[in-house]
Specification:
6 copies of one chain form a homohexamer.
Chain A lengths: L7 E6 L4 H7 L6 E5 L7 H11 L5 E5 L5 H9 L4 E4 L5 H11 L14 H5 L3 H8 L1 E6 L2 H5 L1 H5 L6 E4 L1 H6 L12 H16 L3 E4 L4 H9 L4 E3 L3 H15 L14
Helix pairs in contact in A: 1-2, 3-4
Amino acid sequence: MLRASERALNGWSAIPSPFLAEAMAHQGFDAITLDMQHGLISYDSALAMLQAISTTDVTPLVRTASLDPAAIMKVLDAGAMGIICPLIDNAAQAAALVSACRYPPAGGRSFGPTRAQLYAGAGYMAEANDTILAFAMIETADGLRNLDEILAVPGLDGVYIGPSDLSFTHGHDPVTGPDHPEMLARIDAIRDAARRHGKYAAMHSSAIDYCVRMWDRGFDMVTAPNDNRLFGFGAGMLMEAMGRKPGAPQPASGY
Amino acid sequence: MLRASERALNGWSAIPSPFLAEAMAHQGFDAITLDMQHGLISYDSALAMLQAISTTDVTPLVRTASLDPAAIMKVLDAGAMGIICPLIDNAAQAAALVSACRYPPAGGRSFGPTRAQLYAGAGYMAEANDTILAFAMIETADGLRNLDEILAVPGLDGVYIGPSDLSFTHGHDPVTGPDHPEMLARIDAIRDAARRHGKYAAMHSSAIDYCVRMWDRGFDMVTAPNDNRLFGFGAGMLMEAMGRKPGAPQPASGY
Amino acid sequence: MLRASERALNGWSAIPSPFLAEAMAHQGFDAITLDMQHGLISYDSALAMLQAISTTDVTPLVRTASLDPAAIMKVLDAGAMGIICPLIDNAAQAAALVSACRYPPAGGRSFGPTRAQLYAGAGYMAEANDTILAFAMIETADGLRNLDEILAVPGLDGVYIGPSDLSFTHGHDPVTGPDHPEMLARIDAIRDAARRHGKYAAMHSSAIDYCVRMWDRGFDMVTAPNDNRLFGFGAGMLMEAMGRKPGAPQPASGY
Amino acid sequence: MLRASERALNGWSAIPSPFLAEAMAHQGFDAITLDMQHGLISYDSALAMLQAISTTDVTPLVRTASLDPAAIMKVLDAGAMGIICPLIDNAAQAAALVSACRYPPAGGRSFGPTRAQLYAGAGYMAEANDTILAFAMIETADGLRNLDEILAVPGLDGVYIGPSDLSFTHGHDPVTGPDHPEMLARIDAIRDAARRHGKYAAMHSSAIDYCVRMWDRGFDMVTAPNDNRLFGFGAGMLMEAMGRKPGAPQPASGY
Amino acid sequence: MLRASERALNGWSAIPSPFLAEAMAHQGFDAITLDMQHGLISYDSALAMLQAISTTDVTPLVRTASLDPAAIMKVLDAGAMGIICPLIDNAAQAAALVSACRYPPAGGRSFGPTRAQLYAGAGYMAEANDTILAFAMIETADGLRNLDEILAVPGLDGVYIGPSDLSFTHGHDPVTGPDHPEMLARIDAIRDAARRHGKYAAMHSSAIDYCVRMWDRGFDMVTAPNDNRLFGFGAGMLMEAMGRKPGAPQPASGY
Amino acid sequence: MLRASERALNGWSAIPSPFLAEAMAHQGFDAITLDMQHGLISYDSALAMLQAISTTDVTPLVRTASLDPAAIMKVLDAGAMGIICPLIDNAAQAAALVSACRYPPAGGRSFGPTRAQLYAGAGYMAEANDTILAFAMIETADGLRNLDEILAVPGLDGVYIGPSDLSFTHGHDPVTGPDHPEMLARIDAIRDAARRHGKYAAMHSSAIDYCVRMWDRGFDMVTAPNDNRLFGFGAGMLMEAMGRKPGAPQPASGY
């Protein structure tokens, strides 16, 4: 996907539903990320949803709940083609992420690609170290401070910006902060640093116009508002047409 | 709900996801119907989704897969407050539907409201015959022909029009047929017949503008495009804003 | 179990939980019946619960949702050792029940005991017609009227009395009716008729004292208050000890 | 598949496991049938397994539990591309099967292909009547007697022979009967009758050598021993190599 | 709940069953804790059970399996209104617990309250730091030794005494130890220390009389015997009434 | 099992299917290990599969995803009778494994054997420290280097060799490496070291002939190719008999 040097539009899945994942994979996304942190997705749900996405040629990624090597290896064995790992604050954490994603000698991933080999074929073992994407989330003040050492970690494919937590840990509101000029400047700085290191810069969003603006800002991968939000936008259109008061905005899991 | 003589906007749920059902119940619908016919919802899913809807005061209905008294009684025991039964073609079928929804002596519903009593309280047994809604779907040429005898069945609360199958069985396309003048005339005629019999007339829809127009046409209950369609509308808005070709239209289960 | 001419105490399971089924199988019951009619148990739940009960030597039975031969055969293949079929009103229905439970030439059960053979061993095919129990529920005025022809059906093992629906269809309250002298007389008459035909008479209950009294009345199998009720009794003891107002009585699924 | 006039090797799935279904779809079968009659597969399992098979280009079929139009339509909406219906005894039943598989005016299938349209694309509605396979199982003495009228039903694609039940209902053992000369003669006669009517003849098997022989006998589709049996063959090879007594033969669901 | 300065009776749920959770929420408890440590409850079960409890106004809490910030945040996002964290041995661990439960700047909880916001409404983000309860379990000799430093951790709401492990690590039997005078003295000392620090003292129990005595001892929250035990008490009553030997005592998960 | 000083043949389960687990438990294995690392098995699957295995007298073991004490304790509470822990590199890790498996004073296992006590009976608490097996996996260069200190850890029952990762971390291919003379020498050396320390040496395999050779080499426990591989062997036999090209080899999860 990204290695073919195209930019990617990434769907974000928070709802544990294999059918919705399959439906989402027909909407026009290049990749879909299963959010196991703020989404309601467990390992069992993720496994079923990875199968559902595999009915199409959309690239399946997983945002893990944390930097837990066993959990990372388990979703890779289940067929995830990349990991977005939250809350990476320093180079040691980024190196641990890379190690969990790479077979020896490049890393310490244990061997046993139970479903991944079905999905990706007999060449999986040979190609996995080159094709599995490892993204470190930059979403804390610490992570931003240590950005250069993180980007210098060999084998890391890129950084993924979590604008809400990044805003929160810089004293801004997590919902409105991502559009504050101060935060936008930080976001641009992360993108530029990634480029200097020859790495991908990926960006999260929770609103359609923000998604468009981030795409225009040149990120390599931009995430769209999640499944729950898209559903809410559709429901909002309906309620407006019916002259009804809309429901509360759907929570945007996965900031 | 309907007995309070207000008109109702009914959400239509085809995706087996308790979280999505809960989210949907916060969007502003008066009722939500779990579609066990064309939706992907099984009894197990329905049970979990009925619990999810019960976190709000939205009225939970079920469209069963068929006129199977055991299946009807089982979702009533699980807490459904009404049944929309597909493919009712004559008075005998409508009477069987009513019987499955009513305790003796009004009907033959077997006693054992396992979850319904938790949901609706200790008075459930005494009130169930008056509060459980029984809707017969009119969606075939036979059903239309026998409309008067169906509407004359004691205990039936109303008819629910399935415009796609009704179009299909009258030689029209199931997607475009519901907007054909000939079909609209039939639809209005059903509404008028229901009124003459003092019964509710409820109407299905799969597009927002059609939903609005049906509401304006005065049906007692109008169903909105289903969850899957609402999700697709939101995704379409995104893809349009991103300048991308939209995915294929989401299938509108539950015609 | 019953063939060893002992009388049986039957647990009644309404809650879809394999662990609770396993726990129940350690409480001292001779048999446990999974209630797929008024209980919240689906085929998937039943399969897992049948496995859970098979960790002990308690006899697993199923009360099906209806007289549906395919559903009966499917739970038999999953390992149920007997069927309690609701709402049997005449000999033809009883004969259909027997046919669904017996391999040719005794009946029309289709061959394929996928899990049953694991559970019961290689001799299953040869022994199944003799060991699978088929109970017809007598719980309507029609069923009572046709009791003799039902009991005369070859291959039927016995009748199972549903006192709530039997009361309801005779104009009594389904909760208090089973203790009305008129209903008790009918219940005794069913027991006596079964004996005359050399068949088992089994009896349902939803309260502990009623269960004890029915046992003393000499039924071959007496069902205890269901899992949900037993839980409620325990919770009631707690609330009483704490000086709190108890919760509403747990609904007694499976009358 | 069959319409391309090639013969097909059909895998048979009895174990409710989406992963095993996906693994099976990589073994070299042309089609895989989910057995909802004697297999342990529910609607929920079937839905997940249909998604799993859709990750490959293997054709997904379903053997339903019975001739229940609502259940047939529901698995078609979930993406099954054909139905094998058990216990068809006469032309009326065969016609009901065809009707459940065909949209008007060819049949009475209700419109709402919720997942099928995702799987098969936007042309689904137009093509479904031509591509959905409808197989009537011939597995009783009645079915055999009425074979010609069954084969004459318009829209039926073929017959599927269930040799175990066919043996059982003709007084033979369901396990050894299918290889009895008398039964083999009947089986050949069914194949020849199908050819005379220009319809497919499909054949079940539960052992590898029987499968090979049936293929050589010229059936249009031959089913392999089911997943559970294949697993048992592999385990048997292991136990033999280890010098251990093998486990009991795995039950061959789906005769 | 507790902030309204009433004392609370807490139900304890070990069985992974959404229906049983809903039934339990109607029994008269102020709060129900899902035990993800010794109970059989996974994240998937917990999510469904949190929805079930949300049909009532009972406060849902979770006892996590360990001090894993990602797991804590994930159940909070799913709607848990408080955390009981096992095996807290020192102030650093207690501080990590508090951090996982509080948004910046009070802690390091990542933002994305996917279901919590549905459950608790639009004000969730603003109120969460004040309403989410954080209880540290004191259940080891180390924890007891460091009690004062634990109670001094800012943001900690209280301590929750695990009398079985506390007994076990002090050389007493985990079942009988909690009633040993030496242990009761330690338990009282913990309660008194909590009061000196202005924090809540909560107490576990596995028997009804012990629960009553702990309530009388003045704890702010007392946990009742778990769901499995309550079921066992009810079953024991039945078996006693029937003159049968009771089953083995139900294990009291969640000491 | 092993304590009775017999050698054990261990089945290896990677597919999350309670039925397949039950079927496997009838094949002739002494023990079955649920692989939660490279297998697709979650806690929920493991719980159901432990119940399924408990229908037989096969010993249930679990290979956990990592050295996570909370996860180890949770599967022990669910009824696992032993733990195989991956990636043990030194004595401290081995000691942490032992501690998680032993009640005080031998270790730090928290008390609450919710299902284990049902399965193993009232004596569980007293016997658990003696009967629960704790195996440390030796599968890295570090683990091999520190083998003697690992074997010296009190309470450790044995070592379990992971030949694929051991090969990988020594520069060999994970699939062919286990049969390389250099690796075989290392494997024998581990076995001999275990014997010197009076501990069990257990060995993994993924091919039948390798399994046989490892048995002949005298290991105390030898693991057979996993469920998925056994299924693949059976399917391969079929495809060969049919003259078809076999599918790709099934991935051997659990190296």
